[in-house]
Amino acid sequence: MRGFRNLSYFVFVIIFLLHFGVWCNGDTESTMAAPMEKNEINALYSTIQGFVGKWWNGSDLYPDPCGWTPIQGVSCDLFDGFWYVTDLNIGPIHDNSLSCAPNVEFNPNLYTLKHLKSLSFFNCFVSPRHHPTSISTESWEFLASSLESLEFRSNSGLIGQIPSTFGRLIKLQSLVLVENGLYGEMPRNLGNLVNLQRLSLAGNKLNGEIPDTFGGFTQLLICDLSRNSLSGVLPKALFGGLVSLLKLDLSYNKLQGKIPEEISRLKNLTLLDLSNNKLSGGLTKSLQEMTCLEELVLSNNPMGGFLEILDWQNMRKLTTLDLSNMNLTGGIPGSIADLKKLRFLGLNDNKLTGQIPKSLENLPNASAIYLYGNNLTGELQFSEWFYGKMGRRFGVWGNKNVCYPFGLVSTRNVPFGVKICQQELNFIIDLDETKSKLDHGNFVIQDSNSSMGYLSYDNGIWRSLIVELFIVFLLPLN
């Protein structure tokens, strides 16, 4: 009986698979047999020829680019029973992609691909000296009804300005112009692209101010204008309007002035990177209202001001806090220790004073804490476990009035570049000299300031080594 049931089940499965397979194959055949308009084929071939060279004629492809032998980097879709090109990727994106010719040109037929949704160029315009190429400024409006994504990536030979006609691509959701040779100011009418969700113009030579029209990007999720030469102040409209923004990177520019208080309106922001600019005026208290922030990077700005102005415990999602080289003064607030998700803390190369809070040891996820190059003082009170866990990623060197107490740390876990506290060192030296005179007669250790001194105690590591030698070899003589 059991065998009969198994056989029945097996027969049922076979019949089902055969039926499903025949249906699928029939559907696939009818789909693949769909024709492609001759004008569409001609437009696609001439467009590709403009980028890869006249030698390419597509003669090895049959029956069409969207049939059984598609071109790598070309995708199509059916409209009214015909194939039309929807995605065109030029450059070595895939292993068998067609490489661009040395003298690339924009063929006018590109703009007749009326269903084109995505257009990208990767490492295609690569010769800025011999074959510099500018983006065509004409005819982009013919793609306005369809184009949603436009990308030019890693094209060192792509020079000139961003065409203002890009502002007519009203359906554009992603505009990515990264690592090219573009220069000049950003067109104000890019603000017309109200459907943009991603704007990345990083790694070019763009200058001028950030247009206040960019404040109209109410659907923008990612804005990256880093690594350019943008100047002027941060426009208040930019922060007031980008209510959906998740990531904002304006680093490595020449931006000046204060951080606007309106920045607190970016309630959804997870990354804010304004590093390597010329911002000043101190930290704004509005930052603490950005409770979704995970990465805050303001380093290398002559900003000044105090850390205590913010209630850091309000920013509990922070994983990265880099405020290094900002001319900050005052002390390190203990509330930073409430940032339990913090992995990286950079407060180095400032003018911070006071003691280092022992509560920093309670940051459970911290993998790097850099406090070097300040005016911090006092004894370090961290456990040996903490020193062992952090190693040199706990950077407190360069604070000449910071020391560690003898006896709490073994030599191998001594904080790098930190000296042993002086009063304890003096006691050890006196005791050491007494033992030497009693038991060895001529064993002398003196301070480096003495003309008779044999060893220098300026380096904390040497001091620790001497202390360890004293413990191991001299104390047992008792």
Automatic annotation (TrEMBL):
Gene3D superfamilies from the UniProt entry: Ribonuclease Inhibitor
Keywords, sorted A to Z: Cell membrane, Leucine-rich repeat, Membrane, Repeat, Signal
Keyword DNA damage assigned: no
Subcellular location: Cell membrane
Record-annotated Disease resistance R13L4/SHOC-2-like LRR domain positions: 165-372
Gene Ontology CC annotations of this record: plasma membrane
Entry's Gene Ontology BP terms: response to other organism
Cleaved signal peptide residues: 1-24
Name of this chain's protein: Disease resistance R13L4/SHOC-2-like LRR domain-containing protein
Organism: Anisodus acutangulus
